[in-house]
Write a structure and sequence with these properties.
heterotetramer, A: alpha+beta, C: 399 residues, Aspartate Aminotransferase, domain 1, Aspartate Aminotransferase, domain 2, seven-stranded mixed sheet, 39% helix, globular, binds pyridoxal-5'-phosphate
Amino acid sequence: MYSAKVMDHFTNPRNVGEIPDADGVGTEGNPTCGDVMQIFIKVKDGIIIDAKFKTFGCGAAIAVSSMVTEMIKGKTLEEALAISKEAVANELGGLPAQKMHCSNLGADALKKAIEDYKSKNK
Amino acid sequence: MYSAKVMDHFTNPRNVGEIPDADGVGTEGNPTCGDVMQIFIKVKDGIIIDAKFKTFGCGAAIAVSSMVTEMIKGKTLEEALAISKEAVANELGGLPAQKMHCSNLGADALKKAIEDYKSKNK
Amino acid sequence: MRKCYFDHVATNPLDTRVFDAMMPFFKEEFGNPLSIYEPGARAKEAIENARAQVASLVNSKASEIIFTSSGAEANNFALRGIALSRQNEGKHIIVSRMEHHSILNSARFLEKMGFAVTYLPVDKHGFVDPETVKKSITKETTLISVIHASSEVGTIEPLKEIAAVAKEKGIILHTDAVATTGNIPVNVKELGVDLLSMAAHQFYGPKGAGALYVREGLRIVPLIYGGIQENGRRAGTENVPAIAGMGKAAELARDEMKARTEHVKKLRDKLFKGVSNVENVYLTGHPDNRLPAHASFCVEFIEGEAMLLLLAAKGIYAASGSACSSKALKASPVLLSMGISASLAQGSIVFTLGKDNTDEDIEYMLTEFPQVIKRLREISPYAKGWGIKGEGGECTVQR
Amino acid sequence: MRKCYFDHVATNPLDTRVFDAMMPFFKEEFGNPLSIYEPGARAKEAIENARAQVASLVNSKASEIIFTSSGAEANNFALRGIALSRQNEGKHIIVSRMEHHSILNSARFLEKMGFAVTYLPVDKHGFVDPETVKKSITKETTLISVIHASSEVGTIEPLKEIAAVAKEKGIILHTDAVATTGNIPVNVKELGVDLLSMAAHQFYGPKGAGALYVREGLRIVPLIYGGIQENGRRAGTENVPAIAGMGKAAELARDEMKARTEHVKKLRDKLFKGVSNVENVYLTGHPDNRLPAHASFCVEFIEGEAMLLLLAAKGIYAASGSACSSKALKASPVLLSMGISASLAQGSIVFTLGKDNTDEDIEYMLTEFPQVIKRLREISPYAKGWGIKGEGGECTVQR
Ligand SMILES: Cc1ncc(COP(=O)(O)O)c(C=O)c1O
Ligand SMILES: Cc1ncc(COP(=O)(O)O)c(C=O)c1O
């Protein structure tokens, strides 16, 4: 069902956890009907220097969270904002069709985290 | 499907043929929808001394004809008239339900042969 | 005693290679294809592999193949599924008089549900006339179903021409290709059909697996509701080994079709020639435009079941459309619709050959069959004077 | 790595003895049961033999058993076949919210055809209340369908009491006994049902064979029309090997039921005990009045598919009713109807044991499962502070 890369990120997720003094936190999803992702970022000079996540959800949701946090580290906020759902899925070697929309919340949670950072640093 | 006795009478039918100078001939059935039996009898002193048949029809019809002609030889006309469809079927070790009514015409053809004889000898 | 199986239209023997392809899915790989763990995933893979194989046999996309449990299920599904899905556009369907019971009785069910059904007449060879199809179409017509080839008389219908008529009028066309798929080329694109039924056991595959081709984009109401198997179009835990077997059988049929056809046609023509020596035996169906393995006759003055039994006693297995040999005790409606009289139809006998039949089988049959006819004619009140002719008689339907 | 198959509710492994009983009908005895010659007759005999074996398992007459291709087909057949055959008497049917999709979606189809359907609520254990059934009955009601036991939560319904209500009102009662037949005693007379669905692959029989018990004298409209197979009630060339296998599986289930039940119940209770040590894991369904091989839970703070995948990586195969693990992406309606919240239902996990599971399987599972939970809770935003408790927690649904 899942690609080897998805299974790798699911079974050995990178960046699990919270950042207590995060510069931005974004949550996306809804536990009553599916997955919930929470992304924590640490930003320095407009660059994401650390990222962590907590996720309630299926294998795809956990792999997506892991992948997104990997992808954004070292990126500028603008570069990070440009990451699309498709980009995450591609990086994972693809996701099953029915998982594309409901479990691929990483980019959305990330956007919220960046917005959170920006609203705090206006 | 058929009992061993039916198969025996079907594959080795007794009394096949016509009696050119028959005392009575009876035909029952309809070739457009099923079986037709023709029974020929020779009568002496009220006793059936010979019987033959010709049949167009399935295995059951042929076996029934063979059996009926066997059963009536040596019998009085009254005894022969008393032979029922069930009696023929029993003598054959039973017939499949759907064959009981449509292929078991031997007793009817026999009755017609006896009537034919009687009408000629009034 | 020699055994000659000449009833391939009833069902085929299972090809050993097909059985081998089924084997793993009985025991080790027993998982449910819906399950997300490995054994389930392998069962799923087997099904998708089979789907591609079946699609390749009929030149469709894999996603256009829905597996069923039999040809009859595929036919019920097609007829009722399309009639229902399009009932807002009209409640008239057209079927031919050559159809299998599973189409005819589905049509009758639809009649009870308020649909109008036209039963297309056929000519003496069993052909449906595309012109008649055209004339039968009304504003209410949503579906036409015409069999690809009759299993009873072998006649192959002019489907392309019928498809042209259907297309012109924007009407869905289904064909029951149970007797043809795997036996002669079946190409959904070339035929121009929207739906097509098939059954694995008709091409050396297992019993318990059939399929319906449904052209992409066509909406069909399920026959069996439930889970999301077959994309929600046919529920029920999949019969994985049977489906895997159907796939393998489809692959073999595609690869070996030409050789198989040549083989059975040669034997069948030998059979035709031999039987033409018997007087008052009439070929049913068209002499040339017919299934290559199919030889069907009406034998005058005698009845089919009696022939079958005497042949079987000699190890020769065949079929008949006589009233007495059907458990419903009705003469084959197909034979009657071709204008064959009920009494001649009583003498129906059908030999359908297969890849494993041999020249010797045919020779054996050609010595036994005339004797069976002779024996039964000796018993028949109608056959005075008839028997085996010395020279060739005419071997066509003469009514 | 140890492989623990704990998903018997999805499908069972095929018993070797069952496979052996099927074998002859793949190759040598491939004849069509309708044929009148010997090979066909032996196939027919195999089917009738299997019919008697299945009848004996559920205490019916052989003539009351109709073979189908699956449990889903039997359910569709029952619901629609009875609703249609009795539609002149009324167009209202009653089903419970515990039903399988094949019942629920058939009911929805009937709604589209103009029937009214009542969906019976259930309590927190999943029980249908016979009083509620009684109150739901109207003058129009013709059919009630209540599952014998839920495959999702294991709860066994009070069918006898429901049958008493149905009988009093002269209403036909169907039960989906797919999860029970062959696993616990199923006696159509004692249960008092008029129709009962079953599937061979749920008691170590093959996929591709199911059956519907239809009480003698009850008229039912066919689902699959065609020839005269199954007395004209279910058309299609019979899947002879699968049917023969279902018969053998029924015979074995009857003979070995007691021993199998004792075995799985012992293992299941050990599993219950072990899992009760994990905090915030709730048993679903009734703790006692449930299928003996059935252990189902909701694990708080984490999601079912993720558990399934991590368990599968350890060779442990289970099922879940979570939205993410269903391809329809909906949480199990059964769990929701029992009052379990959608977010708790996301943590659904179901272990169903079988005769070949061992003590060691359970011990292995009891070491791996808590670790899987722990790992996922570490990732979960909701599980702060939760993990494995040292002592026994309460193991029942607490909502
Ligand atoms: C309770 C219940 N009913 C019906 C079915 C459908 O049976 P099948 O998968 O054989 O079609 C299942 C499936 O396992 C089931 O568990
Ligand atoms: C032309 C045709 N259609 C449909 C069927 C029904 O197929 P099945 O017996 O697989 O249900 C048959 C049976 O052999 C057939 O010959």
